[in-house]
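Posting for a labmate who doesn't have an account.
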Amino acid sequence: MPKFEDLLAEGAAVDVAGWDFSWFEGRATEERPPWGYARMLGARMSALAGVPDAAALDLQTGGGEVLATIPAGPPLLAATESWPPNVEVARRNLARLGARVVPVSDELADLPFAGATFDLVVSRHPVAVPWEEVARVLKPGGTYFSQDVGDGSVRELTEFMMGPRPAAGPQGPRPAAGPQGPRPAAGPQGPRPAAGPQGPVPASEVSTRDPKWSVLAAERAGLTVTDLREFRGRMEFGDIAAVVHFLRKVIWIVPGFTVDAYREKLSALHERIRAEGPFPATTVRFLIEARKEDRGAQEQEIPGDPASG
C-alpha cells in the first residue's frame, strides 16, 4: 500500500468540480438502490419528448451528469444549480439536450420561473427541497420525482472522524452543504422556510433526511405523494485517498473538513484500513414521487355520471 502522506496528497489533489464519481473506481464501492433512478428519469423525460409545450426542470443538477444520461427530453428543459463552478460544467454536459442551466443563490431560493411552467420537476440527491416552489412551478397534473440521501447515510465515517452524532430529527440544524456537491452556507437571513396550506414548514424539517419529513412537507405544499421507497446498502473505502477525496467532494459528511484539521483521524483510519481492510459504511437512499392534482379536471367530472368513472 502506498505511504500515508502520498495517499493524502493524492486525495487532496483531485478536482471536486461537478458530480462525477468515476475517480473512485477500484478504490471505493457503493451498492445502488434496486429501482434505478437514472433509468426511471430517462423514461419520464423521454415520454415528454415531442409533446408540444412540454417542460421539465432538474433542481440542483450539480454538473448535470445524471440529467445528461437521458436519451431525450421535452421541448423545454431547464436545470438549476447554486455552486458557481458546477454551473459551467452543467452547461457543457447538457448542451446536447439544449438545456438551459440557471444559477440560483441557494437550494431554498425562489425558483426563477413562472407558475405552472413544468410537467415534471426532478432532483437527484437534493440538499433541501423548496416544496412550495416546486408546487408553484408544476402544472396541474404535473409530477415531482427525486432520489434523496436518507438519514444516517455514511454515518460510520462521520462518527469515526467527529465522534458520536445526535440523531437527525425535525429540530435538527440544516446543513450548509449536501450530497449534490459543495455548497455555500446560507446568507445572513438564513434559509427561507417553505410555506404550505398548514402553515410554514421549518427549514430544519424540509432538509431532514428522514423521508417522513419529505412526505409531510410535500403534503403541506399541496402535493400528493404517489410513491415512496427506501434502501440501505453497503459502502467501502479501500484507501485513505478515497476517504480524503470523498470528504472534500461530499462536504456535508464532515462539515469544515480539511486534511490538516483531521490529519490525526486520517492517520488512524489509514492504519485501520491497512490492518483490517476496506472501511465499511452504510448508504441510505429514498425515492419519492408526488403529484400536483389537476383541480380543474376534477371539477369538470359529474358525480355519479358513468362517463366520468
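Reply:
Got it, the C-alpha cells are right above this. Residues 169-207, 305-309 have pLDDT under 50 and may be disordered.
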